[in-house]
UniProtKB/TrEMBL annotation:
InterPro entries: YkvI-like (IPR038728). This is Uncharacterized protein. Keywords: Membrane, Transmembrane, Transmembrane helix. It comes from Filobacillus milosensis. The keyword Membrane applies. The lineage of its organism: Bacteria, Bacillati, Bacillota, Bacilli, Bacillales. The chain crosses the membrane at residues 33-55, 76-96, 108-126, 138-156, 176-194, 203-228, 248-274, 286-308, 314-332.
Length: 340
């Protein structure tokens, strides 16, 4: 059970990046008439976690490539391997933009947030990932707990209806691209822990537990955003519409935690990119990092909400094949065994 809880933490931390925590990702895919969609997402996410963890456990993996190859085949694995590279680059400039949007809530110019995160990205490059990962392990649970408390408090305080128009569920299909958007980073992270999984019981605990937790948080977040939907036009980051009216201390704390989530997502993406492309350059890591940040800067001018509005649904569509192969994997595997 304890080891299973460990994997739940890893899965939830992978899922609750800055896009999710800000509420922009939830609102982009769900919104009105999405109760069934969130239930379907929780089910598909649970099944996806189970398949990926089971494969990792059986293959005793230390990196995600064997899992990716088992799911989509070697040819498609090479394609999606480069797709992960593109995804990391996207996350870099989306997070830089998110930093600009966050500081705007304190009535500071957008470019201040952009400059701040770039400077801190450049500072951390020479020191490697260990320091920032240690900070992330401490701050991310705080963000998850803080977000849960804010949502529960908001629902109770504002008397938000738990069930919105239960007979109207026209948006159920959005569960598919939302799940597929998140399966590739899920493969990249939990596809690399196979050697550390001790038994299949951990897999059941991790899969079911993470599906329930993310399903509940997503549902609470969605109904809270529906309740303030008339205000969302004025906010780049929807979470701030929910926090409007909260004590200034809570607003400041959640803003700080959200900014750290943005920063750690950006630095993780940057280090992943540097590790992958450094062989193509004859420079040191710091110079490669500078080149990547400069390349990402023009995209940040589009704006945080616009970037998520266009790019996240696109990645959801691109990853549909991976999601389909994950969900069908147990059936295909059984069919192959039957033939043998």
């Amino acid at each position: 059970m304890l080891n299973g809880m460990r994997w739940i933490g890893l899965i939830v931390a992978t899922m609750i990046g800055a896009g999710y925590a800000s509420g922009r990702e939830i609102w982009e895919f769900f919104g009105h008439e999405s109760g069934l969609a969130i239930v379907l997402f929780a089910v598909m996410f649970t099944l996806s976690c189970f398949v990926i963890l089971k494969l990792s456990y059986e293959l005793k993996t230390e990196n995600y490539l064997p899992v990716l190859q088992s799911i989509v085949g070697k040819k498609f694995a090479n394609v999606y391997d480069w797709g992960i590279l593109l995804y990391l680059f996207t996350m870099l400039f989306v997070m830089i933009s998110g930093s600009g949007a966050t500081v705007q809530m304190f009535e500071l110019p957008y470019y201040i947030g952009v400059i701040l995160i770039i400077v801190l990205l450049l500072v951390v490059i020479p020191y490697g990932m260990d320091g920032i990962l240690s900070i992330n392990r401490f701050l991310l649970p705080l963000l998850i707990v803080g977000l849960s408390v804010v949502l529960f408090t908001f629902v109770i305080k504002e008397q938000v209806p738990i069930i919105y128009h239960y007979l109207e569920q026209s948006n159920w299909a959005s569960s598919i691209p939302f799940t597929s958007l998140n399966v590739v980073p899920l493969i990249a992270v939990i596809g690399a822990v196979g050697k550390e999984i001790k038994s299949e019981k951990e897999i059941y605990v991790a899969s079911i537990g993470s599906g329930i937790i993310l399903g509940v948080i997503s549902y609470l977040y969605n109904i809270s955003l529906i309740h303030v939907s008339d205000q969302l036009f004025f906010y780049e980051i929807p979470l701030f519409a929910i926090l409007n009216g909260y004590p200034v201390q809570m607003f400041f704390l959640m803003s700080l935690l959200l900014w750290f989530a943005i920063y750690t997502t950006a630095i993780t993406s940057l280090f992943g990119l540097i590790a992958r492309v450094k062989d193509f350059f004859k420079f040191n890591k710091a110079m490669v990092g500078i080149i990547l940040i400069i390349a990402a800067l023009p995209f940040t001018l589009v704006g945080f909400s616009n970037l998520i509005s266009y790019l996240y649904p696109l990645y959801g569509l691109i990853n549909l094949y991976v999601l389909a192969m994950i969900l069908l994997f147990p059936i295909i595997k059984r069919a192959n065994h039957t033939k043998i």
